[in-house]
């Protein structure tokens, strides 16, 4: 059936879908990626925080021993600056991950149609349908599966680490704290990696779902192609109108012609010679009905017509409308123009003329 969605979406349909917000996305990609980056930058953040706190402690002690508003303000500025520099790597890392995750899932272009006010989104029944509909059920299933997989991964990781933690009771406190920190960070990183794998699978499923939603029927593809290329009937009408206007302009220029070469009935080519513009130019040409119209206008306007079959055919094939006569035909055209000037001098230029001299010269 023509209404069945069986065709891949066109680029135009994909662009429209992006504007409407139909883009395969999963928020888990940015969340788990951010968590992984945070787990890698957190040890550095803790070390820098301890150094900054120690520095501020000594500076504050110096201010307490020698109270001075200027020194206190300087300590506060130093603390804010060092604190910002300490947090900056983590903040920038999280920002970079968020931007990269968004760019990887369809780019950073906003869904412009979603920015327009739409009161249908305020419909409570639509909200209930989303909350209790098939999509909501599918999201609940996904959340359950993700939680189960994450729990299994963490359980398996803990089983490997637990024997080392049990025997760590006799270790010095700093070494024990380092062990606990490494264990926690390893668990966080393991969870983040597992979450990224699940996010990639979720994105693949979302991409497949959106791909099905924006599929097109054969009729829609044909209609879009017709819109892009234009309706053939309309294009034909426009082309016919353009040709008619071109013929009208040609007939208006025909009255300025010096001579019309005929074949004698199938082809007609009108020439005008203006020494200031170079070689003679073709001001009108045509075959069949157009040639008949040119001969009729030439008769009405008393433009001389010369029957020269080879020259008329050669000019019709070689010259476009408005073009100059090619050099290889200069001599033949010059003889025709000289013949016409002779006829005008005798006062009998109008009508159709046969020139035996031209025929013999061209033979």
From TrEMBL:
Amino acid composition bias (Basic and acidic residues), ranges on this chain: 1-22
Q: Name the domain of life this protein comes from.
A: Bacteria
Report the transmembrane regions from the record.
Answer: 29-46, 148-166, 186-206
Q: A GO biological process this protein is involved in?
A: protein secretion
- Mention any one GO cellular component term assigned to this protein in its UniProt record: plasma membrane
- The ranges of region (Disordered) come to 1-26
Record's InterPro entries? T3SS_substrate_exporter, T3SS_substrate_exporter_C
Q: Which key words are in the record?
A: Cell projection, Cilium, Flagellum, Membrane, Transmembrane, Transmembrane helix
Q: Which SUPFAM superfamilies match?
A: EscU C-terminal domain-like
The record's section on Pfam families has:
Bac_export_2
Record's protein name = Flagellar biosynthesis protein FlhB
């Amino acid at each position: 059936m023509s209404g069945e969605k069986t065709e891949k979406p066109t680029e135009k349909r994909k662009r429209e879908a992006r504007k409407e917000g139909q883009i395969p996305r999963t928020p888990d990609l940015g969340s788990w990626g951010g968590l992984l980056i945070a787990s890698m930058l957190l040890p550095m953040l803790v070390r820098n925080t301890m150094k900054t706190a120690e520095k501020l402690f000594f500076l504050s002690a110096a201010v307490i021993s020698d109270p001075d508003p200027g020194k206190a303000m300087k300590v506060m500025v130093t603390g804010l600056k060092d604190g910002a520099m300490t947090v900056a790597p983590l903040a920038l890392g999280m920002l970079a991950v968020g931007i990269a995750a968004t760019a990887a899932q369809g780019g950073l272009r906003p869904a412009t149609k979603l920015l327009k006010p739409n009161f249908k989104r305020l419909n409570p029944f639509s909200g209930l349908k989303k909350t209790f509909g098939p999509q909501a059920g599918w999201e609940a299933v996904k959340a359950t599966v993700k939680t189960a997989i994450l729990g299994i991964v963490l359980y398996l990781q803990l089983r490997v680490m637990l024997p080392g933690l049990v025997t760590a009771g006799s270790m010095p406190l700093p070494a024990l704290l380092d062990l606990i920190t490494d264990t926690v960070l390893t668990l966080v990183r393991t969870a983040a990696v597992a979450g990224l794998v699940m996010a990639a699978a979720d994105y693949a499923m979302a991409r497949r779902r959106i791909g099905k939603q924006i599929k097109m029927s054969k009729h829609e593809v044909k209609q879009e192609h017709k819109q892009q290329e234009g309706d053939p009937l309309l294009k034909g009408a426009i082309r016919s109108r353009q040709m008619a206007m071109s013929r009208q302009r040609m007939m208006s220029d025909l009255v300025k012609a010096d001579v019309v070469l005929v074949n004698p009935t199938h082809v007609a080519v009108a020439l005008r010679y203006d020494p200031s513009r170079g070689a003679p130019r073709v001001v009108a040409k045509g075959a069949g009905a157009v040639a008949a119209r040119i001969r009729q206008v030439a008769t009405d306007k008393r433009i001389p017509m010369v029957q020269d079959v080879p020259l008329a055919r050669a000019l019709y094939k070689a010259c476009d409308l408005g073009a100059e006569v090619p050099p290889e035909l200069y001599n033949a055209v010059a003889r025709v123009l000289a013949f016409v000037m002779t006829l005008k001098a005798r006062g009998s230029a109008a009508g159709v003329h046969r020139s035996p001299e031209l025929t013999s010269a061209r033979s």
